[in-house]
Amino acid sequence: FAAEPLxxxxxxxxxxxxQENKAFVxxxxxxxxxxEGAVLGLSSARNSSGSSSPSLELTGPGVSxxxxxxxxxxxxxxxxxxGLLENDQIVTITGPVSGPADVLTQGTALSLxxxxxxxxxxxxxxxxxxxxxxxxxxxxxxxxxxxxxxxSKIELAYAGTDTVARxxxxxxxxxxxxxxxTGSGATNIDDARFLxxxxxxxxxxxxxxxxxxxxxxxxxxxxxxxxxASDPDAxxxxxxxxxxxxTSPVAFGGTPGFSVARDxxxxxxxxxxxxxxxxxxxxEGSSDLTGAWSPVSAAGNPSTGAENVAGGVTITDxxxxxxxxxxxxxxxxx
Length: 334
What we know:
This protein has two helices and 30 strands. The protein is mainly beta. The N and C termini lie far apart (67 Å).
């Protein structure tokens, strides 16, 4: 219906209305430009006596987008002319969609939004309907794809894979890997969210906090205070030792999680161990506080990996302190 170039700015809408009781196609054959920060809603609506909405096709040389812009499929004006209703929609862009824009869909379950040549760098969010991609997008490797809603799908209608940084299903970030429908060859098959023969390769999964990071957050430690070598309560015990022996990093003067005693002519060191296989507990001995320390040659020392079962551990020195000086210490590495 138009071959002239069109430029959209601000909050704009390109909506076709069906005034007859039949399906028909409206074509825009000119180039389209979406200005910086603009939101362009692409949609259709039917008249109250019709059975289907008309189709909107952008068949021109392409859609060029600018920074901060969004192509919002299914977004319609808040009010319609009298007698027009929302319905399932078909919107197709045959030329390249280029630039940094985000793409969002929010239509009804049976709405179909097709990009034959996606080449945009922004994020993709499917909140309703099906977004059909006719080719892998080489420009969105750093983007995030979100599929939310029970009737939201992405159809990967191409051979091969499209690489993105992150994938969210609802509010849950998915693990790195390949995703697609049955028959696509993807490692992760999800027929509720994906259609087509192509795959989506996700390079970045969720960041999982380490047990130490979870412990530090539980005491509201942040910044330098959360570092393993820090001592926020100034009790002489680094955070890593407080964590490894089950004591508080914010309570000065508490009972340490380790102690030294004697068993006849031998020293013993008893410490509380937590079930973190990434820790290595080593009881070391020395005859001179200024000299070298070496691991005590006793069973269970050092302790690491699967050996780190929560509970108390006692290590007995193998060198007698009878007639000599002897010192023990607990060393924990992470």
